[in-house]
Amino acid sequence: MSVYDQVANDFESENKTTIDDRKGTQLRIMGRLKPGMNAAAAKPALEGLAANLEKTYPVEQKDQTFTTAPVSRNSVSNDPSTGAG
5, 18, 28, 60: which has the fewest Cβ within 10 Å? Predict the structure, then answer.
């Protein structure tokens, strides 16, 4: 998180953002469901969280949501064209 600005804006895009800019889309947070929890069971809690964020930040969080999906591979790169780190 401390190097977000350098990493996220290394791509020299026109849409540069800082970590505190709620309109930024570069930050992705991944987590694991606790044992026994599945995507269907987590959905109501995630929908509630998204609704609370939209209520607090009606412009920046409009129509935003959280999703659950399996991740088979995750890589980090400062060159999005290669997709590898």
Answer: 28
Using CA atoms of 43, 44, 50, 55 in order, give the dihedral in degrees to the nearest 10.
Answer: 170
Say which residue, 51 or 10, is predicted with more confidence.
51
CB 38 within 8 A of CB 56: no
Tokens of 61: 């969080």
Q: For 9-72, what is the HEC assignment?
A: CCCCCCCCCCCCCCCCCCCCCCCCCCCCCCHHHHHHHHHHHHHHHHHHCCCCCCCCCCCCCCCC
What residues contact residue 24 under an 8 Å CB cut-off, 6+ apart?
8, 17, 18
Structure tokens belonging to residue 28: 């992705």
Please report, as a single letter, which amino acid is at residue 13. S
Q: Look up residue 63 and give its amino acid.
A: D
